[in-house]
Amino acid sequence: MKVDNYDKKILYELDLNSRESAQQIGRKIRLSKVSVIQRISKLEKAGIIHNFISLINYKKLGFTNYHIYYSLQNLSQEKEEQFISFLKQNKEINYILQLDSKWDLMITIFTESNEKVDNILNKINEKFGSFIREIKIFTIITTFYPGRNYLIQTKGNIINPVLIREKSDKIEVDKTDKEIIRSISLNARMPLTELEKISKIKAEVIRYRLKNLIENGIIQRFTIDFNNEKFGNAFYKLLIKITPIIKEEVLMSEISKFKSSLRIHHIMGEKIIEADFEAEDDKEIREVIKKIKEKFGDKIKELEILHVYSIRKIDYCPI
Asked: What is the pLDDT of residues 124-155, one digit of tens each?
């Protein structure tokens, strides 16, 4: 499917708020409601929009986010698929990436304790330990989500960014809230009437609770699960190790200014920034790296480029 400027504008609006109605989007980009509906349908059928998802502030629910990188050895394609299938079945593993780099796999885990992480990793080692050459574990302190600003020519400040920080008071949610969070995280564009049928909760109650979840910062954004390959760009991760003389926030702020910057993570206990980019090609990501090195010079101790060639699981809901 050829994506034109109107498609990009629609994708941009959906990235900002995927619950926004076709009529609201149409007013912003000067298209009819019918045309917006048709274009969204085509983007879904083409696989560019894989799903409509919600960004949940897991810290407010009492969870911590761990990023685990695996370097594998002596693994046949069949055994690799068994390994990935095993990981996908674990509900606490929310994100699985296949990488072209020193690291072969990256997974994320949301849990409430270090003990649970250790238990998950031990189970993985028991079954596939002989195929694991090396493992690196990162605990995420802060996540900054500038969004897909490359879809349109934005000027000035980043619009509607998402920031998840370490210091966040836990908010207790009941069974009903959890059910709403879970349902809306799997399909952020789901109408209240459909949510009502699934949850057996009245639409007006869902609307009220959903409003509170947003105001309390638990649901931070309704966005899209995006297929880079179908769209025509590529997904990269940069692991940037810096010297103690520079603050992580300074580097994170600079990285967020790149139009292809998608997510930026500050790692606990190490002077490392993990940055996600959706760039057009290798040339663009090399230009990003060049500018980072020019800006920070010898303050960059090490920089790894990881090309993500497959997303095998994506689920941003920790509950």
From this structure: 999 999 999 999 999 999 999 998 999 987 65
Its pTM stands at: 0.92
The CATH number of 142-165+229-309 is 3.30.70.920
pLDDT tens digits, 66-121: 999 999 999 899 999 999 999 999 999 999 999 999 999 999 999 999 999 999 99
Which residues, other chains included, contact 281 with Cβ-Cβ below 8 Å and sequence gap of 6+? 233, 234
Architecture of the CATH domain 1-46? Orthogonal Bundle (1.10)
| Annotated domain spans of the chain | 1-46, 142-165+229-309
